[in-house]
Specification:
Chain lengths: 215, 215
């Protein structure tokens, strides 16, 4: 089947959102935990998360502007710290429910039944039920003028993860940690590894990298 | 296990790259097809792809700067059109092999054994073996000064996909189209759907959205 620009523009907005959101491939999904200056916690699912760089360790996500009420964005700009929390099979329904439009005075943690965990002297709440938890310091806000979205870039300053998921070469086995992925706006998927492949060089055959955890 | 900034900075660069690249979650991976002004084709795998917006339909990816030789970036800026091609189980090894540093005069299509497909009056080559193919028009280059990476944003102007994967509500079932996902720098994974969940509203229980394809 073939769609060109005219076919895409002819779709109604809901259908267009569902279709276009499916096209990039499977998505990184995380729960973002924040707190405002009055110590009110907020939790929201995001599916537009992207690796920006390893050195320094930077991660980004896209959000709509503050003109609509966006507690996550507002809290990050207010308090400068936030958390990414991987989503697993046990909590994906609660994670999805955080996307409902709750009032600012309501904590999504309480509403959906997830536990705000304050630890390691970190200002923002982690999700206790998440198996991989990441503490992030806000670094930069970039306005994407073409469609009025915003890219938020932060530096990874804390990582909590199960030791048995860490490979000897640094790779973290996020399948073993039960992290799931998403597609479109509302579909959730577990994964099954095909294999890890060796660093590619011209004229050299690829080999499988065996999964070898740290001792 | 707990890493803070000091622990992360203490990792050697290869280990740090593998670890940090694992943290965002499962990744959108695509083969990006381009052509230069002399009609030399290029193909490269990218794992930093992100949905930017549905209306207009925008998609982005991050790349390193042109100071290192980056044929994909150079070609996009030269010819303004490029393709995203989903990766499936049959071609992921060939897709991974495109990350080797081939000379600019070499087409990765030929080297790895994938087929450049020119069609629909589109300037850039699609990957014939990809089941979902997307034609994109370059819109904006944003320099991320914090680590000298570049965000390339394009508008989706063509989509080729199997009709039997399109749901009645606009969702494209990219699991049925055999699209796979990645984690870290080198791990490839198939997926298994848990479920699609209804639009979340406060105080309303979520329900499963049944997968219903167009007639």
């Amino acid at each position: 089947m073939f769609y060109n620009s005219d076919d895409i523009f002819a779709l109604d907005n809901v259908r267009k959102a569902k279709f276009i959101n499916s096209l990039g491939g499977f998505k990184s999904i995380n729960l973002i935990g924040t707190i405002n200056k009055n110590n009110q916690s907020n939790l929201a699912i995001f599916n537009s998360i992207v690796h920006i760089g390893a050195n320094p360790p930077l991660i980004g996500f896209f959000t709509r502007p503050n003109s609509v009420e966006r507690h996550t964005l507002q809290n990050i700009l207010e308090t400068r710290y936030y958390t990414f929390n991987h989503i697993n099979k046990k909590i994906y329904e609660k994670a999805h429910q955080t996307s409902a439009r709750y009032d600012a005075s309501i904590s999504e943690f309480d509403e959906v039944g997830l536990t705000a965990e304050f630890k390691n002297d970190f200002k923002a709440p982690f999700v206790q039920e998440s198996i991989v938890q990441i503490g992030i310091a806000f670094k930069q806000k970039i306005d994407i003028e073409i469609n009025s979205t915003i890219l938020i870039i932060g530096e990874i300053v804390q990582v909590v993860f199960p030791k048995e998921c860490l490979c000897a070469d640094g790779y973290l086995d996020i399948e073993k940690s039960e992290t799931i992925t998403g597609s479109g706006l509302d579909s959730y998927h577990t994964t099954a590894r095909l294999e890890r492949l060796s660093y590619a060089k011209p004229d050299i055959n690829l080999t499988t990298i065996p999964i070898k955890y740290v001792e």
